[in-house]
Amino acid sequence: QVQLVESGGGSVQPGGSLRLSCAASGIRFVINTMGWYRQAPGKQRELVATITSGDQTNYADSVKGRFTISRDNAKNTVYLQMNSLKPEDTAVYYCNGNIRPYEYWGQGTQVTVSS
Questions:
Q1: Cystine design at 91: which of 38, 79, 82, 103 (Cβ 3.0–4.6 Å)?
Q2: Cα–Cα distance, 80 to 21 (Å, whole number)
């Protein structure tokens, strides 16, 4: 049984920070490309960041310089460090794992940035 479980979401003020975690089980984590996506109300789900099995990273332009994705293969966990948060970062954040032909999603964790 494959599970991706996100944690670390919450409410913060603009300029604040959060670190999201995604704990994976039931997959060979080390060979999967992992990613974070987000979906705000009324909007499409969008890519936030990805990290390959070789630790290559990719970020949406909107989060470059503010967010950092990382992985700890020994812990089967991927992280998203979010700094300098803005109200427009408010969304449900989803963890994603991908290794062809399979793709897995977590249930999401809410991030709210407001004054």
A1: 38
A2: 7
